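Renewal narrative, Specific Aim 1. Our central claim is that a sequence can be written position by position from structural information alone. The example that follows is taken directly from our test logs and has not been curated for this report. It begins with the structure tokens describing the chain, in the order in which they were read.
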């Protein structure tokens, strides 16, 4: 009897399993469980059905090529080979491909990317810009050969030959296509090489159109400083580029019609504007002639000198009347004030006082009235002023009487 080590036994089992042609390339379906994204880039998960479970490992080199993100609970089909992890003595499936069961991997990747970009707001209509009404330069980011570019050039040349057309050649399918399309959009934005960009291609299978469903192209369209029109495939084809672009055209030809006006329509519109302008000028001239004729019969234009003289006379008469009225108002106001002052002066006038029986006594030749007996002496001659006339007296006797004493205090 031979005794072997654990390592030898595990190695032998691995060789047996890996040497089995059936287990070297097998497809296994089940529900994904215990999914783990390792920092190294490897994927670890399990596949289970209602009776059993199987450990699965997908190395980074294979996991990086997945176009979608695995999730627990997803029904999937995994292709790989069966081997043994010798350290733990467990056999497992080393996955090389994973596809959702009943749902294509490309379709799942597309739906997941749509949800991601929509959450970030790249599909929001409010961020989309209006196209220039009359672009001077149109850039075509497309394949330089094929029906799509020829259709766009034909439509642009027929509708608006004044526009300059710049073709930016890129691959529109295959692994390099997304990067080339994104770089072309970035370069156009950086140098401002166009007024509007058409990015697209003709129809094809979903796989052939997949470059326009890539995240790098979607972000390049969203970051473009130039309005972008997406024109991918036929009318029934809708890509992520269509959802992110400022405008979506169902076909490349429709995109060309969308970005430039039709010169026939423009010429027709200009003719209508010219007719309206001509009619407007004629109507304005007719109105001005009518107004001029009405002015010609007015006195001011028929006899301008006489009209001016009459206007001046009316103006002077008006000034004269206003001056008279103003002076009358002044006289009336000042006359009333003067009457008031005269009344006040009359009330304190010495003449009126004399008329009431009073007199003024002065020394002869003097202007000062005698107010006190001490102002005169016995034998002095005084002048007495009455209301009418005056006379002279000689002081024979003086009596000093205090005002308001009743005359009982006197001095001779």
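The sequence written for that structure reads:
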């Amino acid at each position: 009897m031979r005794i072997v080590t654990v390592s030898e036994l595990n190695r032998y089992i691995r060789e047996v399993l890996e040497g089995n042609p059936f287990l070297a390339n097998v497809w296994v379906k089940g529900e994904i469980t215990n999914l783990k994204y390792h920092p190294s880039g490897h994927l670890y998960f399990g596949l289970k059905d209602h009776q059993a479970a199987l450990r699965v490992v997908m190395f980074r080199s294979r996991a990086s090529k997945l176009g979608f993100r695995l999730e627990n609970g997803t029904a999937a089909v995994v292709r790989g080979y069966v081997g043994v992890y010798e350290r733990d003595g467990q056999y497992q499936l080393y996955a090389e491909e994973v596809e959702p069961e009943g749902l294509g991997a490309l379709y799942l990747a597309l739906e997941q990317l749509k949800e991601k970009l929509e959450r970030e707001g790249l599909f929001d209509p409010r961020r989309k810009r209006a196209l220039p009404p009359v672009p001077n330069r149109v850039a075509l980011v497309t394949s330089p050969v094929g029906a799509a570019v020829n259709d766009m050039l034909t439509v642009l040349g027929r509708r608006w030959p004044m526009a300059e057309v710049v073709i930016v050649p890129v691959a529109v399918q295959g692994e390099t296509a997304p990067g080339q399309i994104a770089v072309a959009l970035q370069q156009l934005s950086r140098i401002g090489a166009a007024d509007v960009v058409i990015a697209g291609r003709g129809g094809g299978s979903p796989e052939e159109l997949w470059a326009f469903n890539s995240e790098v192209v979607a972000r390049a369209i969203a970051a473009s400083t130039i309005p972008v029109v997406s024109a991918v495939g036929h009318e029934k084809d809708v890509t992520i580029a269509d959802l992110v672009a400022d405008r979506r055209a169902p076909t490349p030809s429709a995109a060309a019609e969308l970005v430039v006006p039709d010169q026939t329509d423009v010429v027709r519109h200009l003719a209508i504007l010219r007719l309206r302008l001509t009619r407007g000028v004629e109507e304005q001239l007719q109105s001005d002639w009518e107004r001029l004729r009405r002015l010609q019969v007015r006195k001011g234009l028929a006899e301008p000198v006489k009209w001016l003289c009459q206007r001046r006379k009316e103006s002077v008469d008006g000034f004269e009347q206003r001056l008279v009225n103003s002076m009358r108002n002044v006289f009336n106001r000042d006359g009333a004030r003067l009457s008031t002052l005269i009344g006040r002066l009359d009330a304190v006038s010495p003449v009126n006082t004399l008329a009431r029986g009073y007199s003024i006594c002065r020394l002869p030749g003097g202007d000062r009235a005698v107010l006190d007996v001490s102002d005169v002496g016995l034998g002095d001659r005084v002048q007495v002023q009455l209301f009418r006339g005056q006379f002279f007296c000689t002081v024979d006797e003086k009596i000093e009487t205090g005002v308001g004493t009743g005359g009982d205090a006197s001095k001779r």
